[in-house]
Design a protein that fits this description.
Radius of gyration: 20 Å
CATH superfamily of the largest domain: Vaccinia Virus protein VP39
Helix content: 25-40%
Largest sheet: 7 strands, mixed
Order of helices and strands: EHEEHEHEEEHEHEHEHEHEHEE
Low-confidence stretches: none
Number of helices: 9
Number of strands: 14
CATH class of the largest domain: Alpha Beta
CATH architecture of the largest domain: 3-Layer(aba) Sandwich
Length: about 325
């Protein structure tokens, strides 16, 4: 009889600067059993936990993984926190992982609720966003997600059409729908994110069906513009992606956001905001840093002049 498989449990501190990059990189390396431990009472303290089959991750592979993760720190001029490895017997890792998640209030109205929990009485009356964090595509714990959700609440997108570029888990679009948006068109280049958005939409009563309030497509700005084509650009654009990617996509925003509309852009560091706003202005957008949490910022954009293709300063 073969011995039961064992697992490496990997733990490391997840600094705010690295959290999004880690949650993107680990699944791309085949590591999908990932969680971020946090407590709403201590929002600045996050711990990454991952489970890796012992047979697939001998010492040389674990050393190479550390080297790959170290490269993620270069844009932030920081050192990778220590990786702590513990060998464990076979366990129901999913149940262990689920213990890390708690109901998480955001702003005055929203409650992010892991799919398997019931809403606690102390948060009765909040609008629920049910999320299955299994795909690690955005659970609301990251400051950039919270900045966007809090800004959505302030804007109150009642009866608005919303475009979500780089939708991840779909949490921002679902937040917009809970706050009164008429419909959300979403896109992501990762097919797993598209699937996660669809699954989370169904959890919240917004299945992705023809004519439904939630639509999602695999792709980037061009594909999202195609999804919006029938009724034209949206009233509100959401884009929670890293700053260099926002800069690359800025030339497409006029196909996604109508004149008079508002865009909420996050995923950027506060010290990247000035340069990003300059780049956005070159594409015809009035852009301002309007909120921040720790090192992360939120930029709001509005149309300020006609965009002429190729007219980039």
């Amino acid at each position: 009889m073969s011995p039961a498989p064992r697992w490496w449990r990997l733990e490391m501190e997840a600094p705010p600067e690295l959290e999004e990059s880690l949650l993107w990189k680990l699944p791309s390396l085949g590591i999908r059993r990932v969680a971020i431990q946090f407590s709403p009472e201590q929002p600045s303290s996050h711990q990454l936990v991952a489970w890796l089959p012992e047979a697939d991750w001998p010492e040389p592979e674990r050393r190479r993984l550390a080297e790959v993760l170290e490269r993620l720190t270069e844009p932030f001029a920081m050192v990778l926190p220590p990786l702590v490895w513990q060998l464990q017997d076979e366990e129901d890792w999913s149940l262990s992982w689920k213990r890390h998640w708690q109901p998480d209030p955001v702003g005055e109205r929203l409650l992010i609720l892991p799919a398997w929990l019931e809403p606690p009485q102390e948060h009765a009356g909040r609008d629920l966003i049910r999320i299955d964090p299994g795909s690690a595509f955005g659970t609301g714990s990251h400051p950039t997600t919270r900045l966007c959700l809090e800004a959505l609440e302030r804007l109150a997108p009642i009866d608005q059409r919303v475009a979500d570029l780089g939708c991840g888990s779909g949490i921002l679009g679902l937040g917009a729908l809970r706050l009164g948006a008429r419909c959300v068109a979403a896109a992501d280049t990762d097919p797993l994110a598209v699937r996660a958005t669809g699954s989370n939409g169904e959890l919240n009563g917004y299945p992705v069906v023809s004519g439904g309030p939630l639509q999602v497509v695999e792709g980037s700005a061009q594909e999202l513009a195609g999804l919006l084509a029938e009724d034209g650009p949206a009233d509100l654009l959401l884009c929670n992606i890293l700053a260099p990617v926002i800069a690359e996509l800025a030339g497409h925003f006029h196909t996604l956001l109508a004149p008079g509309g508002v865009g909420l852009l996050s995923g950027l560091l506060v010290d990247q905001a000035e340069e990003l706003c300059r780049q956005l202005a070159a594409h015809g957008w009035s852009a301002d840093l309007v909120a921040s949490q720790g090192v992360w910022g939120l930029v709001q954009i509005q149309w300020c002049r006609a965009v002429i293709p190729g007219d980039v300063a």
